[in-house]
Amino acid sequence: MAQSVALTGRQKAAILCINVGSEQSARILKYLRDDEIEILTVEIAQAKKVTSEERDTVLQEFVELATAERYIRTGGIDYARELLEKAVGEKRAKEILQRLTASLRKRPFDGVRRTDPTQLASFLQNEHPQTIAVVMAHLLPEQAAVVLSSLPPERQADVVKRVSTIDRTSPEMLREVERVLERKLSALVTQESSTAGGITWAVDVLNRVDRSTERGIMEMLGRSDPDLAGEIKQRMFLFDDVVKLDDRSVQRILRDVDMNKDLPMALKGAKDEVWKKVLGNLSKRAGETLRESVEYLGPVRIRDVEEAQTKIVNLIRSLEEKGELQITRGGTEDEFI
To answer: What is the pLDDT of residues 277-292, one digit of tens each?
Structure first.
């Protein structure tokens, strides 16, 4: 592989996203912080014509790093080094592992993020709420939601409050927590302060947990910290907030939603305003069929209704992330999330 092309890390990331296509790039962006997304988006927008040599160099490097990381997860660094040396030689294997180690140093708790969230939830059950909060603040929202849902109801609101009010965590604290968790990559913790958590994190996670968990957390937060609860609630999108969407957005949602199962279940016992919004964007015949489907369900468990509503909310959030609809925030017409 040619080594003459000198590219920055940002340029390489932009070239990779350009060449894997918009759909895969969107999936990559979901795992980045807001500041990282902004930087990468600017780099992509400013990208000039990429030569075939630059493209091949970046793609080859990506494959090598991804392969090395998979080897590390499978059997550790020694195992990865052994396989890489057989594949690309001792010198090249050393370069790949050094580059991978450098990238892992950028963010703490990389090892924790690669742990199965169910196992991590079990592991954290008896830890102090502040320890749980620090760990959860560095997890992906999907992982944090699993951990949060597994906690006893009386601890859930406390942990959300702690994470929401986290400002900056010292490297000493991060090292101590990782030492407690006995992660293999504890030596790779960055020497700089880490910023994580905050209101945005809380909203992102609470939008992913089941409705019962979300309701319980918000009720307890409302009693212990009304201002924080109010700010979080203002940013959240719930199933009943469908009434806040414009008709065009509702029609877009109805194209993808399961009309035979999820929508009838989600509408069971829904408010009149929600029914009116949905029916107003269906033909008369489709609306009658929907009403019949809901009536045909008979008595259902609240948990099943909430699960169906969560699926639809996740669909709405997915469409919003793709830019196919916009969600009004805070009761204003000029702010969106």
So the answer is: 999 999 999 999 999 9
